[in-house]
Every structure is written in C-alpha cells, then in structure tokens.
Automatic annotation (TrEMBL), chains A, B:
A Pfam short name: GntR
Organism: Microbispora corallina
Keyword Hydrolase: no
Domain called HTH gntR-type: residue spans: 5-73
Keyword DNA-binding tagged: yes
Domain of life: Bacteria
InterPro entries xrefs: Bact_HTH_transcr_reg, Chorismate_lyase_/UTRA_dom_sf, Tscrpt_reg_HTH_GntR, UTRA, WH-like_DNA-bd_sf, WH_DNA-bd_sf
Keywords: DNA-binding, Transcription, Transcription regulation
Protein name: GntR family transcriptional regulator
DNA sequence: CGCGCAAAGTTGGAGTCACAGGTAGCGGCC
DNA sequence: GGCCGCTACCTGTGACTCCAACTTTGCGCG
C-alpha cells in the first residue's frame, strides 16, 4: 500500500513501529546506514534520511562512532504550577523530589518594556521595568530559564544586581507588604528554542520547549509577569484545578 | 568566529536572523537552493540542509514549484482550561470566539484499561472501561483529539455508540446526580505526534503536540480521565490559578 | 596476562548529479 | 483583449562519493 510513498518513509515507519511496540527496547542498537541500505534495499541517502527523521522525532539518538540507539525515554519530571508567589520554592521542591540539588543564579537590570511585556503588565510600551533573568539548575545542570518583569514602582533596586539563590520577587514583596496577590494567569505554548536558549539549556537537537507566561495580579493591577522556558523532553506541567461548583 | 561550525549553520543563522528581526517579513520569498549556493558559496547539500532546518523550526514553509516563504505565524488560539465538567463547552467557546464553528464527533466502546490508564483511574490493570474517542473540529477542520476513559460503573451504555455533538461525560453525569467533582488534575507535556494523530489532525511536518492528561476526582475516587492531543502550532493553553492565601 | 594501539565501523558534514511533479509567468494565438 | 499552453524555475526525493572525527574491538607485543 502507498507504494508511491518516498522510500525513506518505509524505513522510518518500520523502525518506528518496532520502537513503539517494544520490539526495539530503549537502548537497543538501530541498524547502521550500511545495514539499512542492505536490509531495506534502499540507497544510502534514504537510510540517512530515515535515521535523521527518527532522531528529529526524539525516538533514537545517534553518537558519532558508536551508532544509533533507541532513546531512553527520560521520565518526565513533574513541575507543579501552584498557587504560590514564590515560583522558586515549587521548582526547588520538584527538583529535590527528583533527587537533585536545586540551585539558581539571577541577574537583574533596568530595561524598557517591549510591546508584548507592556501589554501583559498593562503599562505603556517601552516604559521602564526591572528585568530579572534567572537560570534554574538541578545538580548544576540547567533545567529552566526564567525571565521576569516588574514595573519599576514595585521593584526594589533599579541598579543592576547579580546573585544566586532566592531573590524576592515583586509579587512576594507586595504580598508580604499587605497587598495580596489575588490571581495568577498562565498561558502555555510550545515553540522551537532560540539558539541562546538551546545553548543555555544544553538542549539536544529536535527538542522543543514549553513557554509558560505567568502574570501575577493584585486586584486589577498586574504586579509581575514571568516567562519560563522549559525543556519539553524533561518536564511535564502539573495543574490542580479546584472545582468551585 | 566559530569558523569550524558546519557551513549550513552559517546559512541557517543568517536567514534566521533576517526572519526574526523582520528583514524578511512573513510571506517574503526565501532564496532558492541554487541562489543560496551562489550567494553563500556553499554546496547544494548545505543549502538544502539549511532550508530543511528552517522549515523544521517552523520559520519557513516550502511548496513544490513555488519556493520557500517566511511562514505567517498563526496567532495561537487560547484554549481555556477551566473548572468545568464539560470540556466541550470550553472548547466550543474558545473556537467560537476565534470566529469558527465548533463541531464534534465521537465513538464510544468497551475496552480494557492499559496500565497507564488504570493507574490514573485507580483501577486494576486491564479492567473494563468505556473509551470514548472524539475529534473536535472548527469549521470542519480537525483541531483537537480527545480520548476519555470512564470505569464501567460510571458509564451509561457499554455498547459501542457513535454520535456527534454533545456526549455527557461520566463526570458531568455524576455531578448532575449529586456526586460533585471536587478537583481536576491536569498534566501537560510535549511530544511528537503519532502517525495516526498527524493524519487525523492534518499536521504539517515538524509540528509537535501538546498532550494534556486530565483526571476528574470526586473525593478520592477518580471518575474519568481524558487525553487531549492539541496541535502545538495553533493553540496555547490558558490557566487561571486562584490564590487562596 | 595485561595493556596499548591500530583497524574497522559509524555518524555527521559536504559536494555533485539527476529526475519527477508542481507553479507561475510570459508569449503567442484566437 | 483575453485565454491557453509552454517554458523556466523550484522543491522533494534519491543515488553516489569523499572525508573528518569518534568509538569499539580485537590483536599483537611487551
């Protein structure tokens, strides 16, 4: 059937079937290019193309010199998106329960709000905000990128700062100061990582990222908004949705 | 710098820069393979490879005969993950506000709970469940796949059924019958679509999907669990997290 | 018997050529 | 002036080749 399909797809489909149905378990070696050319009677281009597609899909992983193997599907670590004003605490708990030691480094500076951020914070475009870029790590390996924006009037210091570990967010400080956060809005989408993100997160090829935009509201005022960039191959987001009926 | 980088990456980076900074606006034509070989003094392989990578990243789209163009970035339709026992209602509202007409077809049948589903429903493996597969559409185009599982004791009819439009879920029927749903748990992750999903959703190459697992709880009893498969290039998930502090 | 090194095998990058099928624009014909 | 067909161009796929870098394995030598 579908004899007009590209040749390489025949190879892709056969190997994929064997991987998903367990004939080829995680760690099992995949036939090499030359073996594929012989086994399926295809050219080397088709064999190479098939392997590339499967690697891109994340089903196999190739290492120079030692061949392709079925990728061990990493267990997706849960990331609890909870009702707290201190996202680091939740992250730390999740990482620790995964048996790793969480750390965090950050750098804050004054910046102008680009249109999208301005809209999310309900401030005018290019108005001054404090931008904090954080890298969250587990056992030293980068796991998540966090960029948060606070209007300057909520920020503490407008001078560039750097540090590691906890940094009190605007949301946290306002909550402690008697202005409680009333709601958190999040939107989640998938996208291809930018080169710098791919670099910082040490992402293998083909991995997409979850981009989570979170905005903290105190009444009708947006207090802080953050962008989280999360490797799609290592995490799953966990939401608890209370039913108020 | 980085002169040892693969040649095709030079092309990818140059074109990507032009696309993201707006030099090449959406719809603009991308140089063809032959033009790239001349302009960047690279071989045809490198040109081809560069175009493939950019297409895989979703930045450009190629059509046989008419060349590559910068992809119009589709606005990500919001999908509100709300505290309702009738997911179709939320979906319908979101699709309608996007100016499209929502429809739904479904098919229910008796099945044995595979291990993962059994665990989510807190029933023993391979115990009988009712499985409902739905395809949600907007203006006739498939937008989302939904598979839900209910333990037979909550299900209505064990005979295979088929239909379109509303189908009362176990969660809804229990709630109406006086057993209120107390919590909804969701986990979100990204993955490569399976061939059948790619087919049903008419996904272009390189698009990954959001996989949302939702479980309805009535007290400590799992009433129903659903898997939603959502094209990652067209939707973003929206969560409202009330703060109970 | 053990260790090191060389050879064989593998991936990833790169070049070249070829061909089928599709698009679009231009020119000629009615 | 309008319509039709042809041609040039483009993509997707495929074959064949070469090479650098790396891993593994097994053989030979000390």
């Amino acid at each position: 059937m579908a004899n007009s399909d590209p040749v390489y797809l025949r190879v892709v489909e056969d190997l994929r079937r064997q991987i998903v149905d367990g004939t080829l378990p995680p760690g099992a070696p995949i036939p090499s290019r030359h073996q594929i050319t012989r086994k399926y009677s295809v050219g080397e281009t088709a064999a190479r193309h098939a392997l590339r597609v499967l690697a891109q899909e994340g089903l196999i992983i190739g290492r120079v010199g030692s061949g392709h193997r079925v990728r061990e599907r990493p267990t997706l670590l849960p990331l609890h998106r909870t009702r707290t004003t201190e996202p680091l605490a939740a992250f730390a708990a999740d990482v620790q329960s995964g048996g790793r030691h969480p750390t965090c480094t950050w750098r804050s500076e004054l910046a102008d709000a680009p249109p999208e951020i301005a809209q999310r914070l309900r401030v005018s475009e290019w108005s001054p905000v404090i931008r904090v870029r954080s890298v969250l790590r587990g056992d030293g390996r980068p796991l998540q990128l966090l960029t948060s924006y606070e209007p300057v009037e909520f920020g503490q210091s407008q001078a560039p700062e750097e540090g590691s570990g906890e940094r009190r967010s605007a949301a946290f400080r306002l909550a402690a100061g008697g202005t409680p956060i009333t709601e958190i809005g999040e939107t989640v989408h998938v996208r291809v990582p930018q080169p710098t993100e791919s670099d910082l997160l040490e992402l293998p090829a083909g991995v997409q990222v979850l981009h989570v935009e979170r905005t903290y509201w105190a009444g009708d005022r947006a207090v802080e908004t953050t962008d989280a960039v999360i490797p799609g191959d290592r995490f799953r987001l966990v939401y608890g949705i209370p039913v108020s009926l």
